[in-house]
Amino acid sequence: MLDQAVNAAESTGARVEKLVLSHFTVGPCLERGDCRETGECSIDDDFKLFYRKIMAVDRLIIAAPVYFMGFPAQAKALIDRCQAFYARKYVLKKRIPDRGAIKRRGFLLSAAGFESEEAFDCLRKTMKYLCLTIDMEFSGDVVVPGVDAKGEIEDHPDALKRSWELGLRATAPQ
Prior knowledge:
- Helix content is 40%, strand content 13%.
- By secondary structure, the chain is an alpha/beta fold.
- It has one domain: Flavodoxin domain (Rossmann fold).
- It has a three-stranded parallel β-sheet.
- The two termini are 23 Å apart.
């Protein structure tokens, strides 16, 4: 699904960078509290890279499967570490640098073995609040229930088509 969205975005000429969380070390939030003073996390791991990327991007697509009705550990750790953005925005009253007319937007791609749309409720809500915190508008998702095995998404051409369309929508002007 993510590859479809990335390929679609690239087909429009957009510059895309795909970061796979499992290739990085992003530990959980330790609630040290110093982000409340600086707006940045003091834990020395790869979150520093993600922090800079989130500050700089106009579009963000998070692709993650559903694990026990929520985000998997790697994605949840990254999202929890965005507490630094919460501190920056709500405690220190600093916004992400303004990009003028460009509206920052976030999207979600997900699949779940569970056969119901309810499987995505937690992910959607978490994604909406993450976007609010990082000054993005949550602009949509593609979710596919009933997909449990690796590669099984290939049996869902509509999901792949909708993922492609999300990639195009992500690059569209406001």
